[in-house]
Amino acid sequence: MKFESTVPPPAHRLKNFGVNLWAEFSSLAVENKATNIGQGFPDFVVPEFLQDEVRKAVAKPAANWYTRAQGHPRLVKELATEFSPLFNRNIDPMTELMTSVGAYEAIYAAITAFVNDGDEAVVIEPHFDCYAGDMELSGGKLIRVPLRPTGDGKYAKNWKLDEEEFEAAFNERTKLLITTTPHNPIGKMFSREELEYIGSVCKKHNVIILSDEVYERVMFDDNEHVRIGGLPGMWERTITVGSAGKTFSVTGWKIGWALGPANLISQLQHVSSCATFTAPTLLQEAVAGAFEYERSVAQTDEAYFKWLPAKLQENCQMLADAFSDIGCTPVWPDGGYFMIVDTANMDWDFADLKQGGVTMWTV
Question: What are the residues whose beta carbons fall under 8 Å from the beta carbon of 14, sequence distance 6 or more?
Answer without folding.
Answer: none
